[in-house]
Specification:
about 260 residues; 16 strands; 14-stranded mixed beta sheet; mainly beta; 1 helix; Jelly Rolls
Length: about 260
């Protein structure tokens, strides 16, 4: 019996609670209204402002780099002429005695500046018996090509290849001549600008002959004036005599000029 009560006691209590609730609902009491359910208003996010369109920045116009002005290379200084070499080409003959002189052959040859040009070859000159005549060289046209000649010294050389027994050099002269190799046998100024006189140099032995240094006087000249070398020869024999000298590129025959044009 005790167990029965124990099992049903909770049920009775529960039934009593339900009944009370029903009674209360049916009575005329004031009921408390249920609070309204509040719905939160949706929060409106502000519309994002559109990003401003960036104005395109104008690319700076590159200034054209100016090309550097190239300075002209300095023109090369004229080559100083310190010597003339006897050549093989014929030269003007006005400075030399030719007509009826009893001399034939390489009476006048052109001189070329510095190392010389042209084929190297021996040049021959023939003298009649007991005559005095001359041969020599005239510088190439347009050389030395200066308007004033300083007081140069001139050293003349003659490379004898075929000896001429009885032939003697008696004088060596330096002249300033015009474009034609004259005028006449005295050149410009009426005579040589420097001389070696009273010589007795024999041509009877092969080899290079260096004549005494000639001191030349200063000259006011034209650009077309040329240098003339005259070598006077006497044949001491009664019969014809000849000799030859070497000329052309690299030859020793010619004239050295100090300090040079």
């Amino acid at each position: 019996m005790f167990m029965f009560r124990k099992l049903f006691a909770p049920l009775a209590i529960a039934a009593g609670l339900i009944g009370s609730a029903v009674v209360a609902g049916c009575g005329g009491g004031t009921s408390t209204p249920a609070p309204p359910i509040s719905h939160p208003s949706p929060s409106t996010s502000p519309a994002a402002s559109p990003s401003p369109i960036a104005s395109p920045s104008a690319s700076p116009i590159a200034s054209p780099s100016s090309s550097p002005v190239v300075s002209p290379s300095p023109s090369a200084s004229p080559v100083t002429i310190t010597s003339f070499v006897a050549g093989v080409a014929p030269g003007p003959t006005l400075l030399f005695f030719t007509a009826g002189s009893g001399e034939t052959g390489a009476i006048s040859r052109q001189m070329d500046p510095n190392a010389g040009t042209g084929t190297n070859a021996n040049q021959s000159v023939v003298y009649s018996g007991n005559v005095s005549a001359n041969f020599g060289w005239i510088s190439a046209a347009g050389t030395p090509g200066v308007l004033a000649w300083p007081a140069e010294t001139y050293t003349v050389r003659l490379d004898v290849r075929k000896a001429g027994p009885g032939l003697i050099v008696t004088e060596v002269d330096i002249y300033r001549v015009d474009a034609n190799g004259g005028p006449g046998t005295n050149g410009l100024g009426g005579g040589p600008i420097g001389s070696d006189t009273l010589l007795t140099q024999s041509l009877g032995t092969p080899g290079v002959i260096t004549f005494p240094v000639i001191a030349g006087t200063a000259q006011v000249s034209a650009a077309t004036d040329r240098v003339g070398v005259k070598i006077r020869v006497h044949n001491t024999n009664a019969t014809n005599q000849s000799f030859s000298y070497n000329a052309g590129a690299g030859a020793a025959s010619g004239v050295t000029i100090t300090p040079g044009f």
